[in-house]
Specification:
alpha/beta; TIM Barrel; two-stranded antiparallel sheet; 15 strands; membrane; Glyco_hydro_17; Glyco_hydro_17_plant; signal; EC 3.2.1.39
């Protein structure tokens, strides 16, 4: 099983739309000086078991390379094409004919993103945005594809004002003339409300008011959780608070059954001197926790158990993007297909990781009952036929002498003996697959020393992969003032509880 970057790996969860599974997907930007050829991009996706991708355009080379892979594809109408499509039904029909009908069903196109953050990045185009949505949808109807392919438009979380408490959130009133008909369109077509959610920017703009742990999904003590006084719902992370604010804001306009789809979320792995929290560790923590949060069906406080499908931003580091250093370092991989870091994903089903060397391990779950762990350890070293001699006193894996550490060694050995079959890493619920190497000191776990993976080489750039990935479509920095205000108030209120 290719170690997925989990990235995106899409495993099932229950979605706000009852008949669809929630998923983790990945955005594919192309601002690289040495952009891999589409066939190389797809090879990486397949090796990582990535099942959902979002393109910022409708690049023909990518759509051809994705054909017959089963990967579900969201394509985009770039902002620079929005005006023509929003003013002409015929132009929209031609776009659908060239970029959808010509490739479907060989290429499994499931979604069309019309523009990107149009209401804030191109406010003058706002009046024709809903027309563009309708015209694209009408073209799909004419091709009998409207049930298979949904149409929506990604929006920034900054359009939500007064977002804390989430139960009192509402949209910028100046946008309601667009949002009301847009939401009506989404509801009538069974489409999702697309939202870009960046806790990194909320945290950065809070000037220290938002705790880093709150932005990274790290566990918080009960007295530091954010409480919505109107609903008494407890919020333990920025992501959930933003999602619920969106649900409540839609409800304030009398729309209560439109699911939220997060089209972008992530954390940069490197930044300049003004971005000290753009680090490998924090990027790993955020994306690993985000993936676990989605695939574990956690949901939000308002909608527990209903996971919010999310596309991680993004597949590659993009060295030619303008702006601060962080803008170039949101990727999970470099241009050669080598992982920037290995995601730490446990307790998220048979999820793998973005490590093409296929390094997965079986470890004791944190907080597992000691008696159950001991019983499982005894079984593994007995009937399970694991060689546990390395756990004897004086041997390399004796220290630390804890049941959990010894169990992890035995569990992992059994898992490897059985070909890394996910069912071989259960032990009645006290074990889970992880990409974190449990080796320590002289105690080296089976397979841990073989780290020489074969990565994809990038030698042939796509001729048209750059055409519509312009910075205006994906410029960061516009996020979070209102969301940040929400969290600032939220955290402040929690701290006095």
């Amino acid at each position: 099983m290719a170690l997925l970057l989990l990235l995106l790996l899409v495993i099932s969860a229950s979605s706000a739309s009852a008949d669809e599974d929630a998923f983790i997907g990945v955005n594919i930007g192309t601002d690289l000086s040495d952009m891999p050829h589409p066939t190389q991009v797809v090879a990486l996706l397949k090796s990582q078991q990535i099942k959902h991708v979002r393109l910022y355009n409708a690049d023909r080379g990518m759509l051809l390379a994705l054909a017959n892979t089963g990967i579900k594809v969201a394509i985009s109408v770039p902002n620079e094409q929005l005006l023509g499509i929003g003013q002409s039904n015929a132009t929209a029909a031609n776009w659908v004919s060239q970029n959808v009908v010509a490739h479907y069903p060989s290429t499994n196109i499931t979604t069309i993103c019309v523009g990107s953050e149009v209401l804030t990045s191109l406010p003058n185009a706002a009046p024709i945005l809903v027309n563009a949505l309708r015209f694209i949808h009408s073209a799909l109807v004419a091709s009998n594809l409207d049930r298979q392919i949904k149409v929506s438009t990604p929006l920034p979380s900054s359009i939500i004002l007064d977002p804390f408490p989430p139960s009192q959130a509402f949209f910028n009133h100046s946008l309601n003339r667009v949002l009301v008909p847009m939401l009506s369109f989404l509801q009538s077509t069974g489409s999702s409300f697309m939202l870009n959610v960046y806790p990194y920017y909320d945290y950065m703009q809070s000037n220290g008011v938002i705790p880093l742990d709150y932005a990274l999904f790290k566990p918080l003590p009960a007295n530091r959780e954010v409480v919505d006084a109107n609903t008494l719902l407890h919020y333990t992370n920025v992501f959930d608070a933003v999602i619920d604010a969106a649900y409540f804001a839609m409800a304030s306009l009398n729309f209560t059954n439109i699911p939220v789809l997060v089209t972008e979320s992530g954390w940069p792995s490197k930044g300049d001197s003004k971005e000290p929290d753009a680090t490998l560790e924090n990027a790993n923590t955020y994306n690993s926790n985000l993936i676990r949060h989605v695939l574990n069906h956690t949901g939000t406080p308002k909608h527990p158990g209903i996971a919010v499908s999310t596309y991680i931003y993004e597949l590659y580091n993009e060295d030619t993007r303008p702006g601060p250093l962080s803008e170039k370092n949101w990727g999970l991989f470099d241009a050669n297909g080598a992982p920037i870091y290995v995601l730490h994903i446990t307790d998220a089903g048979s999820v793998l990781a973005n490590d093409t060397t296929n390094q997965t391990y079986c470890a004791a779950k944190d907080g597992a009952d000691v008696k159950l762990l001991q019983a499982a350890l005894d079984w593994a070293c007995g009937p399970g036929k694991v060689d546990c001699s390395q756990l004897a006193q004086g041997q390399p894996c004796y220290e630390p002498d804890t049941v959990a550490e010894h169990a992890t060694y035995a569990f992992d050995a059994y898992y490897k003996m059985n070909g890394k079959d996910p069912e071989a890493c259960d032990f009645k619920g006290v074990a889970a697959i992880t990409t974190s190497n449990p080796s320590h000191g002289s105690c080296v776990f089976l397979g841990s020393s073989d780290r020489n993976g074969t990565f994809l080489n990038s030698t042939a750039p796509s001729a048209d992969s750059k055409s519509s990935n312009s910075p205006i479509n994906r410029l960061h920095g516009n996020y979070g003032f209102s969301t940040c205000l929400m969290i600032m108030i939220a955290v402040a209120s929690a701290l006095v509880l």
